[in-house]
What we know:
The protein has helices at residues 7-35, 67-70, 83-106, 122-128; strands at residues 53-55, 60-65, 110-115. The chain contains 4 helices and 3 strands. Bound molecules: zinc ion.
Amino acid sequence: xxxxxxxxxxxxxxxxxxxxxxxSTELKLIAFFKANSIKGWRRNYKLFGKPDFTFPKQKTxxxxxxxxxxxxxxxxxxxxDNADYWxxxxxxxxxxxxxxxxxxxxxxWTVIRLWECELKDENxxxxxxxxxIGV
Length: 135
Ligand SMILES: [Zn+2]
């Protein structure tokens, strides 16, 4: 199927999707931190791969991966149009995510990756963030 967007339009759409996603997922997680008295997190901490949240004292980082962009096999994904384009883009992201995780782990960081769709499940979050809750 032919691309319905020009290059410029596509960049614009992608920017919008990305910034809207970031804002809402970050706010959700910050609300979760507050509700569970999780402290010591930093935003925009200068670290390889730009983690979404960094806990320097616990040497732990959190990435929140958008299901669509990072290839989660859940119902949030899989557009039919331009499937090749999205598949390639996601494959690059997945490969990059793996590299970032491995690099940080090799430097002694604990890497927690959350899927965007998991943010709705508070029990699951508690389970995955066990290491930094109550520290
Ligand atoms: Zn998902």
